[in-house]
Write a structure and sequence with these properties.
Structural class: alpha+beta
Distance between the termini: 149 Å
Largest sheet: 8 strands, mixed
Shape: globular
Oligomer: single chain
């Protein structure tokens, strides 16, 4: 028997990549590169925007520091000029009398404790100081180079060096030439307390940069001039090895205007910092910030974009080739929106993207929300800066901060608070206005109101309003302090003391002088916005205001009348007041016991 034929052999299926796999890879290759490119473009664009915002923040802080330093030196120069007026004004008697007046004025100043008078050749003449201040160490004769620089300064303040003061805190040694008739008549030397400016460094660093040590000022030798820690300034700590100065290059003497920004390492931290020169002093303002803090939002943004990219890729893979083709149009729209955002011409993501219900729609709406947020924050920063600059011309710093930081509270109404009111009125103003040209009266009132505003704000009060020739000041709102009554009385005393200097100036310029009658009263009042929805002002209303005004009207020229309510709140300081008897105020049945602040 023949053998059976073998069964037919089935050919094996060729091995290869399945169509599903091919389509998967094709869609993957078509979808992922554009999405990844979009993500990187978005991240690069927003990194640049965030870096620019950080630079703007640093420049803003540097500007605040520069303005504060220059403003403090201008005030010192003005104070020294006023002391020079006392020393050399005619009609003030012997030198002992003049020195006594200077000592009284120095005791009233907050930034200096003594004044040394030098002859034009630099020889020390005398030192005048407040009684409680220890005797300062001053040179018996100034260096010849310093005398030459003072002569060349044309009557401007000359800043020397920072050192530890008699009380241990840092002070700035300054000299001021008194120029009369084109020549140096004398030289005034003193030491300016740097404590308030050091406190400002700490406040700016803590509020905006996350740490008090992140704002400081150095001199051309890279030694600290201002820092949140006054002890480090007094010790003249050397910052020449600080990472910021190691990373930057440029004018090492800070004698020319310069601005620089750089990344650097400080210890084990990656930092970014900015530096700007105060060329007229040879100083530099430095601002630093950990990169992890400055770019904290960048990591979250990258994670959000990456998550959105993953979701978009999954949608593209599920939709296939048709879905991949449809992705090109919204991707182009998003790229255009990204470029528009980078060019600050962002008009929104196209509606065909934001209306989509898939991952690309989510990405588009997230991107638009992020862009709108960046625009809003940028406008908010600009608007607040413009609002503060504009409002500061009309309102006190406290009210400006209240308006800008809480615009939602700008509505009619107020709250009941205990306040201390001070009224200061020019005695005999009507006769003065009749005897002088209106231009002289306006100039005199402007100068009086300027110094009165400085005195009142320095003591923590606000100017409520100027009523003709009268000043109404308030303590206890919008911020209150436990010693508001004492601050008000001290401001009234400062104003009376300053008037002696002001009268000498006005007597020399116009041949006139004025006297103030001042009334002080403490009590409840309603503080808030009064007026209409279209025009309102922040003020205080109540019987307390009326009593203070009537006390002022009863006060004699140069007299400060204080009510019993204010007297009770002065505590131990009330013993210095002199009883002035009981007064019958107009419109009130009960008598009011009054006290006088002795001159």
């Amino acid at each position: 028997m023949d053998a059976a034929p073998p069964p037919p052999v089935t050919p094996a299926a060729p091995r290869g990549v399945s169509l599903f796999t091919r389509l998967f890879l094709l869609v993957l290759l078509c979808a992922l590169p554009p999405l990844v490119g979009l993500g990187w473009k978005m991240m690069d664009t927003n990194v640049a925007a965030l870096q620019e915002l950080v630079r703007h923040l640093h420049r803003s802080i540097v500007g605040d520091v520069q303005r504060s330093v220059r403003g403090a030196l201008v005030r010192v120069e003005q104070d020294l000029e006023g002391l020079g007026q006392i020393l050399f004004a005619p009609g003030l008697g012997e030198d002992t009398t003049r020195y006594a007046l200077v000592g009284t004025r120095v005791a009233a100043l907050e930034t200096i404790d003594f004044l040394t008078l030098y002859a034009p050749n630099g020889q020390s003449v005398t030192t005048v100081k407040a009684d409680e201040v220890p005797a300062p160490q001053v040179p018996a004769r100034l260096d010849a180079r310093l005398v030459a620089s003072l002569e060349a300064s044309r009557g401007h303040l000359v800043v020397q060096d920072v050192r530890a003061g008699a009380e241990g805190g840092p002070v700035l040694e300054v000299f001021y030439p008194l120029v009369r008739e084109g020549r140096v008549r004398a030289i005034l030397g003193t030491q300016v307390k740097l404590g308030p400016l050091c406190a400002l460094m700490g406040t700016l660093g803590e509020r905006f940069l996350g740490a008090r040590d992140n704002v400081f000022v150095v001199d051309r030798q890279r030694r600290l001039v201002l820092h949140a820690d006054p002890a480090r300034v007094a010790a003249r700590e050397d910052f020449s090895r600080h990472g910021l100065f190691q990373a930057l290059s440029g004018d090492s003497s800070f004698s020319t205007d310069m601005v620089a920004i750089s990344d650097f390492h400080q210890g084990d931290q990656e930092m970014m910092g900015s530096l700007e020169a105060l060329s007229e002093l040879g100083w530099a303002v430095a601002v630093q910030q950990p990169q992890a803090v400055a770019y904290a939002s960048l990591s979250e943004m990258r994670q959000s974009i990456l998550a959105a990219l993953v979701l978009a890729a999954l949608v593209a893979l599920g939709a296939g080739l048709v879905g991949a083709r449809q992705l090109t149009r919204p991707l182009r729209d998003l790229v255009l929106a990204t470029r528009a955002l980078a060019e600050r011409t962002f008009q929104g993501v196209a509606a065909r993207v934001t209306r989509r219900s898939d991952e690309l729609g989510t990405l588009g709406r997230a991107f638009e929300g992020m862009a709108r947020t960046l625009e809003s924050k940028e406008r908010e920063v600009v608007a607040q800066a413009e609002a503060r600059a504009a409002l500061s011309r009309y309102l006190s710093p406290e009210v400006v901060e209240l308006v800008v930081s809480n615009p939602g509270q700008l509505r009619l109404g107020g709250e009941r608070r205990e306040v201390t009111i001070v009224f200061a009125d020019v005695v005999g103003f009507t006769r003065l206005a009749e005897s002088q040209p209106p231009e002289v009266i306006v100039a005199l009132l402007n100068e009086l109101f300027t110094f009165a505003t400085e005195i009142i704000q320095r003591r923590g009060g606000i100017i409520d309003k100027f009523i003709g020739d009268c000043i109404m000041a308030v303590w206890g709102t919008p911020q209150s302090h436990a010693d508001d009554a004492l601050r008000a009385v001290q401001a009234a005393e400062d104003l009376r003391r300053w008037l002696d200097v002001g009268n000498r100036r006005w007597r020399e310029r116009w041949g006139i002088e004025i006297q103030l009658a001042i009334g002080v009263h403490t009590g409840p009042a309603v503080a808030g916005n009064v007026g209409s929805d279209k025009r309102m002002e922040y003020t205080v209303i109540g019987d307390t205001v009326n009593v203070a005004a009537r006390l002022e009207s009863m006060a004699q020229p140069g007299q400060i009348l204080v009510s019993e309510a204010t007297h009770e709140r002065l505590g131990a300081d009330a013993s210095e007041l002199v009883p002035a008897g009981e007064r019958q105020l107009s419109g009130r049945t009960a008598v009011t016991r009054t006290y006088e602040v002795p001159a």
